[in-house]
Structure formats: C-alpha cells, structure tokens
Write a structure and sequence with these properties.
The protein has 117 residues and is mainly β. The chain is built from 1 helix and 8 strands, in the order H-E-E-E-E-E-E-E-E. The longest helix is centred in the first third of the chain and has 4 residues. The protein is globular, with a radius of gyration of 15 Å.
C-alpha cells in the first residue's frame, strides 16, 4: 500500500481525504518528525482502540462524527468540532459507538524541562 504524501504549501479538506471502511480503523500520517506527529484517522462504528498510556500529551480534534474517549476511567463524549487533551501518562481508550474522524497531534519535545537534575 502506497503511503499518502501531504504536499507542503497546499490546502486540504481533511474530512474528505480519509474515508470510512466498514469494520476498520484507517490512519494517515500528515506530519511525522522526531519531535512529534500529526495523524488523521477514520474509525468505523463498533471499533475500539485498546487502552494505552503515552508518555506525551495528545491533542485530539474530532472532525466528523462522535467519539467516546475514556481517560483514566472517566468517559468523555466528543463531537464534531470539539477537542480534548489527553495528558501524558494517562490511560486512554477510544470507542466508536458511532463512526468518527479525528486529528491526533502529539508533541514530543518540551518534556525535558520537567526533568530534575
């Protein structure tokens, strides 16, 4: 499968770039750097991401549909146009009671300033 390349200095309608596929989770990387990444995802109804913990904050933007996101065992329902920040080191799980599309932004730099020497 060929990886989609986002051309710089171009405009995109991200809702139209990624399609829903029955019983699937689709992910396209918009930007991937060692300092962080931005991903576009389409999650079909009934799909679930297993609980995970990331060492970085994640900014989640719902661009279509409705997502249920569980952070440290508390459930949040996020609708089109809404966003949430998943804190670093928090347990999180995504549930698609209805299908949804989202942008996930993770920034990996800046955490070094919290290290005690």
């Amino acid at each position: 499968m060929k990886n989609f390349e986002f051309e710089k200095s171009n405009t995109y309608n991200l809702v139209e770039i990624i399609e829903y596929i029955p019983s699937s989770v689709i992910c396209k990387t918009i930007i991937k750097k060692i300092t962080g990444n931005i991903s576009l995802m389409a999650i079909d109804e009934g799909e679930t991401f297993a609980a995970k913990i990331s060492p970085f904050d994640a900014f989640i933007q719902i661009i279509d549909g409705v997502a249920e996101i569980i952070i440290n065992e508390k459930s949040y329902v996020i609708k089109t146009g809404q966003s949430i920040i998943i804190p670093a080191h928090a347990s999180n799980k995504f549930i698609a009671n209805k299908r949804f599309k989202m942008i996930s932004t993770i920034i990996k730099s800046g955490y070094e300033e919290n290290i005690l020497y």
